[in-house]
Amino acid sequence: MAAEVYLNRKFIGNVESANGFIENFKDQRRKGQIAEEAGIFYDEIAEEIHINSQKGRALRPLIVIKEGTPLLTEKHLEQLKAGEITWDDLVHSGVVEYLDAAEEENALVAYKGEFLTKDHTHLEVSQGSIVSITTSLVPFGNFNPSSRLIIGSKNQKQAVGYYAANYHIRMDMDSNLMHYPQFPLVKTKIHSISNYDEHPAGQNVVVAVMSYKGYNMEDGVILNKSSVERGMARSTYFKPISAELLRYSGGLTDELEIPDKETKGYRTEKQYTSLEADGIVHTEAKLTNSDVIIGRTSPPRFLNSLDEYNLSAGVRRESSVALKHGESGIADFVTLTESSEGNRLIQVRLREERIPEIGDKFTSRHGQKGVVGVLVPSQDLPFTNSGVIPDLIFTPHGVSSRMTVSHLLELLGSKVSALSGRLVDATLFDSEKETDLRKELANLGFQENATEVMYDGITGKKMVARIYIGNMYYLRLKHMVSKKIQSRARGPIQLLTRQPTEGKAREGGLRLGEMEKDTFIAHGATLLLKERFDSDKTAIPVCTKSGLIGFYDGRSKTLKSPIYGEDSDMAYVEMSYAFKLLLNELMSLGIYPKIKLIDKF
User: Which residues are tagged catalytic?
Assistant: First the structure.
């Protein structure tokens, strides 16, 4: 069948036999006569052949199939293991080829060798290659719904871990470092390939699946307080703070110093106590709210004609770098360098120890995330016959609706791993079988279903139900309550609406909306609304004749109406300042917002 040929979407000619042309193209590509990155796609309906060699296309490797048998043989695999040939040799010899998204439309790919037929054109290099690296780190991933698998892979990216060995000399923007990271007991092949043991991001903890006094409802988790005190999930948060000494016109520059009391904008003396003589904070200094870290003074913003001739007379202004509201930490590392513009650059790294507390986020590798509901001393927690106390209690209600069977399988696999002293392989589509793990657990002297008799830590009584308990690789996520907690009593207000500012950084309050108001009423806490809704309460003089907002005349010291002047009765009306603003805006549109005062008529 004849067809038109396009190269990178440009028409280059016609061919009499489309199939013959495509076969010839692929043969030459496999022999190395055509670039292996070039892709060919045949659109039968439009009778068009599209050849694509543009940059930026995603290509993936597949094993070539000829007449139902793969070109990759056992001999090739032996040569690869011995180091006689490389991956590139397989590509150049046409055993493996790269396909783009368009060419895949003409291919029939088998994901397993047993499923090969005469119609198949390619075979997957590995069954697990349909997922990304982070997704392939999820153990027993094929026992999970796709949505949970995606969530599990995303959660791993947010885990606190050991991200770099040279962290102590780095100035990373926002980094967390786990103190005692571990390699998972249940691993996948990708853990070994990616050298996961060099940058782990979690810990193997003992997990019991049960409810405990309701503190782990709604995905909450309960932590063993004693385990936390011994260092479980403990981490350090690093944050850099920098200041640049700028140069100005007229030879003026910023100076690094402890500002003296004549400096314009001088802060309180207490805020400068951590600074050394050079104006930089000393290492290991404990810093709290609004403490100065880098002392700096700048020349005045505006110079008058006299100051231009006598620069020494100008009073310098304070431009130090201080901690923001609610921040605290220890000065960990100080470095002096130059910026790209050639100015002096001072960088101070802050360190803060983060101990797990109520509200911190934890997750397994299966998208089963939850926040800490309570920390319980180990003596109050349930224990097994052999005296094992769980580090974490997970709610059983989290599994039924999410259908994360892999979460339960990991618990079983990790228990086998911990008792037998070997790592359990749980690679996607190629994991150890559940039946084998059950048998091994039974041979180790435990119940094959990983349940155990447990005793209540407070009463000492034996629990009626057997508890599913084992080990699991848990991750601590970077979403910590100490960074997100926000509260305020009094504080700054917006200039326009006179309502409290918004956001944690600006010492803001939490907005109470219509729905929040309804919950207060439903709880019978209506007096709270009285306090909540007068954040911008104001008394405004209103003219009883015209119904318009009046004003106070400072000269005559009387209230005046905008229309009748002093000839009208004025009455103060309590209202929200935002409502007064609305009235002003309506007037600016030429609308007359008349306020009728019932008790004045």
Answer: 219
Ranges assigned E (strand) in 528-597: 537-543, 551-553, 558-560, 570-576
Inter-axis angle of helices 434-443 and 405-420, nearest 10: 40
Check: CB of residue 388 under 8 Å from CB of residue 208.
no
pLDDT tens, 44-73? 999 999 999 999 999 999 999 998 899 999
Alpha carbons within 13 A on the beta-carbon side of 245: 22
Q: Are 405 and 398 in contact (CB under 8 A)?
A: no
Residue with tokens 């599994």: 399
Any bridge partners for residue 240, and if so which? 349
CA-wise closest residue to 512 among 535, 493, 490, 491? 535
pLDDT tens digits for 442-471? 999 999 999 999 999 999 999 999 999 999
Please state, in angstroms and rounded to a whole number, the distance separating the CA atoms of residues 65 and 26: 13
Structural domains for the chain: 3-130 (no CATH), 141-231+358-476 (2.40.270.10), 236-354 (2.40.50.150), 486-532 (3.90.1800.10), 537-600 (3.90.1800.10)
Phi and psi of 88, rounded to 5°?
-60, -35
What is the residue whose two structure tokens read 């996520």? Answer: 477
- Helix, strand, or coil here: 398? helix
Q: Which residue in the block uniquely carries the two structure tokens 């130059």?
A: 338
Residue 209: CB atoms within 10 A of its CB come to: 22
Assessment of whether the complete model's pTM goes beyond 0.90? no
